[in-house]
Design brief:
Layout: E1 7-11, H1 12-21, E2 23-27, E3 30-33, E4 35-40, H2 50-55, E5 63-65, H3 69-82, E6 88-93, H4 97-100, H5 103-111, E7 116-122, E8 156-159, H6 166-178, E9 185-191, H7 192-196, E10 198-202, E11 209-211, H8 220-231, E12 236-240, H9 242-246, H10 250-260, E13 264-266, E14 281-284, H11 291-299, E15 302-306, H12 312-315, E16 326-331, H13 334-337, E17 343-346, H14 349-358, H15 367-387, H16 397-407, E18 413-417, H17 421-428, E19 437-440, H18 448-463, E20 469-474, H19 475-480, H20 484-491, E21 496-501, H21 506-514, H22 538-544, E22 548-552, H23 555-567, E23 572-577, H24 603-616
Parallel strand pairs: 2-11, 4-5, 4-6, 6-7, 7-9, 8-9, 12-13, 12-15, 13-14, 15-16, 16-17, 18-19, 18-20, 20-21, 21-23, 22-23
Antiparallel strand pairs: 1-10, 2-3
């Protein structure tokens, strides 16, 4: 027998884990495992076989025990985001409701283009014991089950029906998760019997391998067309998206902007591409943006979008830009590069920026245009300074953000999601260092905050143990998913969590009011069925999970509590009540399309609908 013919007999589950343990990647000259471990809750669908395999690899693939599968998926997404999609975690869940709980997290990872591997239990392939516990039966399609629901929210999906199948499946799933264009979650369904079936696998499958993420060079003709168009611009602007960081192209972006003197505006995912103090950083753009960035976007004649999928919060539902402006879209994904008849440059951001730069020698944006953009940014900075100032109005999100921004270390990581905080963080946070802001707004998923903070802290502790992970969460999202406070305490992965209590879902109440509707069912006080108006003692609740916790009355007390949390080695929760009506950032918003009633008995609703329809006239129609 030659070495290439050598085999080893393993169960399907054992082979999967052994394969994962053998996959490496080189990051900044350091070789490390691509898979940092996993999150798992065991049940009858994964404990006996996959659990047995994981037990023997716990030294190289640590398994973090989550409290809810959805939270595990959020933590895995945050871990991948911290590592700029170069590393991932797996999630394992039992057949049935455990796996179903991962569906939302898979959608989040899919929308945000983040790698996450799901190893989920499935019903028996033989069907001999059917119907089994937690099995969903489809009378006319016995092969159709709960796990098929992940097909719409996975970049790669497979169900293992024979042990040999993983020889093809695992490399394909890994290639998807590492591909810059197709990156996203991979789902592998594992029938309970197949997990334990054995096969003589080729030992070559388990040899250590070091992977490299592909950098696709853009097409020369696309580069030439983009360079020619950008060189003709009188009012150019660069939109810097999250893809800039995933490509590790921040320095190339900065050099390109400085060489050609082009203003830069950031997306939500692209926050922290440039420091707040950089002279060409004109702020965040769009619905949750800044007056300065939106001023630039509205007047630009040529827009170079780098690494952005141009979602509606960036484009103001396509009203943020002049209808005649030309868009160049540099993106690793062909799907994103061609949106709204953009001139596409399909390829890696770093290589694409370099290629365009080589053809633009001598070009600089007109000085008057750049001076005007800088002047607008200066106005915005003045507004933000007053907006975050304690005492300017009742307690607000912005004031809390200002306190944290002033006292945190530059490498501390800020995590927020959904609700009102993405807008408030995006608009008011002044970036202290590159890649330190995680605002999950690709899927706008409440509940990501604390679970994502835990995942981010696990990743951060591998590289930056002295930095902190700071989570900003509203009371509504806290009540939705908070149990990973306990996870962070159990695992010694400290977080600082600010719980900002505005009495319910206040940002949706604001949208409700702004479209002419009455407050209804969003704030606890405006919920007719909430007949017992009690308040939640968030401090006691957090303490019950082993965290430090305190309640503060105002931003001054928040500052002192935050200093204590920084000094502590234990997860700390700080609770502060904020105003549901007067505490919002009122500037920096573009129009955003929402559906409104075209017929209503209330005049205020009819007026809100008319306002939305008027805004629609400014939309670009795909040209």
């Amino acid at each position: 027998m030659t070495q290439s013919d050598a085999t080893i007999r393993l169960t399907t589950a054992q082979a999967i884990i052994r394969y994962l343990a053998a996959q490496f990647i080189e990051i900044d000259g350091k070789r490390t495992r691509i898979c940092g471990g996993g999150y798992g809750i065991f049940g009858h669908g994964n404990v006996t076989c996959l659990g047995e395999a994981l037990y023997d690899h716990q030294d190289v693939l640590p398994l973090y025990r989550g409290q809810n599968e959805q939270g595990m998926g959020f933590a895995a997404a945050a871990y991948a985001k911290y590592h700029l999609r170069q590393r991932f975690m797996f999630c394992t869940a039992s057949a049935g409701p455990g796996t179903a709980n991962l569906l939302t997290a898979s959608a989040l990872a899919h929308a945000n283009r983040l790698p996450m591997l799901m190893l989920c239990g499935d019903t028996f392939l033989t069907r001999l014991p059917d119907p089994v516990l937690q099995q969903i039966e489809h009378y006319g399609n016995p092969a159709f089950g709960l796990n098929d629901g992940f097909k719409s929210v996975s970049r790669y999906w497979d169900r293992i029906t024979h042990p040999a199948q993983i020889i093809q499946t695992l490399p394909a799933a890994l290639a998807t998760m590492l591909d810059p264009a197709d990156c996203g979650p991979a789902f592998i369904g594992l029938p309970q019997d197949v997990q334990g079936w054995a096969y003589d696998y080729p030992t070559a499958l388990f040899e250590e391998r070091t992977h490299h993420i592909r950098r696709q060079a853009p097409d020369a003709d696309e580069v030439a067309a983009a360079a020619d168009l950008l060189s003709s611009a009188e009012r150019p602007v660069i939109i810097a998206g999250g893809g800039v960081q995933y490509s590790r192209a921040v320095s190339e972006l900065t050099q390109f902007a400085e060489t050609h003197n082009i203003p830069v505006i950031e997306t939500i995912a692209g926050r922290a591409n440039l420091l707040a103090t950089h002279g060409l950083n004109c702020g965040p753009v769009g619905v949750t943006g800044s007056d300065s960035a939106n001023w630039v976007a509205e007047r630009a004649d040529v827009i170079l979008s780098i690494g952005s999928r141009l979602q509606d919060f960036t484009t103001g539902s396509w009203t943020a830009f002049d209808k005649q402006a030309r868009i160049i879209s540099l993106n690793a994904a062909r799907h994103d590069a061609g949106k709204h008849l953009s001139l596409p440059v399909v390829g890696d951001a770093k290589l694409g920026i370099q290629a365009i730069a080589e053809r633009m020698s001598g070009y600089e944006a007109p000085a008057g245009w750049v001076d005007d953009a800088k002047a607008e940014r200066k106005k915005w900075d003045t507004y933000v300074a007053d907006n975050v100032r304690p005492g300017n109005r009742p307690n607000s999100y912005a004031q809390a953000i200002g306190v944290v921004n002033e006292l945190c270390d530059k490498r501390d990581r800020v995590v927020a999601a959904a609700g009102g905080l993405p807008a408030e963080v995006t608009a008011n946070w002044r970036t202290l260092d590159i890649g330190t802001v995680d605002v999950e707004f690709g899927f706008s998923c409440m509940g990501y905050e604390i679970a994502g903070g835990w995942g981010a802290r696990i990743a951060q502790s591998e590289n930056e143990p002295d930095a902190d992970t700071i989570v900003l969460v509203g009371d509504g999202a806290y009540l939705l998913m908070n149990s990973d406070i306990y996870s962070s305490v159990l695992t010694g992965k400290k977080m600082i969590v600010l719980v900002l209590d505005n009495g319910g879902f206040a940002v949706i109440n604001k949208l409700q009011n702004n479209t002419g509707n009455e407050s209804y069912n969003n704030l606890i006080s405006d919920t007719p069925t909430a007949v017992n108006q009690v308040t939640v003692d968030f401090e006691s609740h957090a303490r019950s999970m082993g965290a430090n916790a305190e309640t503060v009355a105002n931003p001054a007390e928040l500052a002192e509590a935050f200093k204590r949390a920084k000094e502590s080695e234990t997860t700390s929760i700080i609770v502060m009540t904020v105003d549901a009506y007067e505490g919002w950032t009122t500037e920096g918003h573009t129009w955003w399309e929402v559906g409104t009633p075209s017929v209503s008995e209330r005049e205020s609703v009819r007026a809100g609908h008319a306002e939305v329809e008027e805004g629609r006239l400014r939309q670009r129609r795909g040209v």
